[in-house]
Amino acid sequence: MRYQSQRIAQIPPYMFAEFKKKKLMMQKAGVDVIDLGIGDPDLPTPKHIRDKLIEEMAYPENFKYPSFIGCFEFRQAVADFYKQQFNVDLDPETEVLALIGSKEGLAHLVPSVIDPGEIVLAPDPGYPPYRMAVSLAGGQLFTMPLLKENNFEPEFQNIPENIANEAKLMFLNYPGNPTSATVDIDFFQRAVSFAEKNKIVIAHDAAYNMVTFDDYRAPSILQAEGAKETAVEFGSLSKTYSMTGWRIGYVVGNKEVIKALSVYKSNTDTGQFTPIQKAAAHALKSSQDCVKASNDIYAGRMKAMTDALASIGVNTAPARGTFFIWAPVPRGYTSAEFANTVLEKTGVIITPGHAFGTAGEGYFRISLSVPTDRLTEAINRMKKELTIITN
Ligand SMILES: *Cc1c(COP(=O)(O)O)cnc(C)c1O
Question: Which end of the chain, C or N, has fewer beta carbons within 10 A?
């Protein structure tokens, strides 16, 4: 009896599930573990969004099957948000689709756009679901290394011509997880030209587009000229409004791609619960002061941790976006060795860079989405216990 397809059997266990096991074991052994591994906001969802959910729970018509493509209010709110933030016009009927979190859409996009055996380009290091979705769809992955000397941007001119010609889909992600790299609009313009020339669909994952600091504002790829011919952009309420558990996101842009994904989805799921969509619409339409407030908190933590790392010999510039620090491991360590050393000496979990792809080797990622007092405790332990290893 065979219980698993080849495609499932070849998927390694979800990285964070493994870390969770290790964490539980250490906690059982009495260690006060501080988890800087997973990126999941500790801050509560702002009250006006929670209140809107409760209000919408009073209407029985909201309890029925939702619309497949998302309720009109949500799609209109996304379109208005794009106009206001990026001056991009979107037709809420054809260019906006609601998702049950953007991870759902990113994963289902692959079989909606490619056939088995076809090539997909994805960043390395990158968010693991991109490559797993390619694997599950029977696609062929071609990774684009992201190097520090190129601002963690892929070098399109280094992609072999036959690969570029045959590729059907390309994932991009800025502000980036795990690299925390940010780009300006000319990068997106170059990406769109490359994709147009080679007839590649671009899937830009903009999960952190509102988690930015100082006066940096992340552009939308749809601001690039001709972008709607090739690109879709995935947005999420998860990180912006601390709504990871709510499972609500969207995809905007090229209407043919959106149509293909909506066919897939209408045969797979039945949309997110309407009160959640309405509360999400409310979040997008309301004042964005709550976003500024959470970003200020992340910026403060970013500075504190960056300074602490500098004091133990790990130098990295504070990022302009995301709540991650992506830094090189001290000399003499692999990513895994450094993460293990930190865990054993301090009880702090950090993510080894190779978990995001082979080009992530030599780096580690710290997530700042833990309460500030816990982060301070982690910083104190690291300063106390780790000085020795870097000298
Ligand atoms: C968190 C995250 C997502 C997932 O967001 P959801 O909308 O909660 O599914 C997508 N992409 C990246 C890079 C992320 O870090």
Answer: N
Indicate which atom in ligand 1 lies nearest the CA of residue 105: 9
Pocket test for ligand 1, best of 205, 210, 323, 369 (most atoms within 8 A of CB): 205
Does the pTM of the predicted model rise above 0.70? Answer: yes
CA distance 303 to 296: 11
If you measure from the C-alpha of residue 383 to the centroid of ligand 1, how many angstroms do you get, rounded to a whole number?
31
* CA of 104, closest atom in ligand 1: 9
Query: Are 284 and 248 a contacting pair, CB within 8 Å?
Result: no
Task: Give residue 166 CA to ligand 1 midpoint distance, Å.
Answer: 28
3-state SS, residue 70: coil
Atom of ligand 1 nearest to the CA of 248: 7
pLDDT tens digits along 182-233 = 999 999 999 999 999 999 999 999 999 999 999 999 999 999 999 999 999 9
* Domains detected in the chain: 6-45+289-390 (3.90.1150.10), 63-285 (3.40.640.10)
Q: Which of 27-36, 113-122, 168-177, 289-298 has the lowest mean pLDDT?
A: 27-36
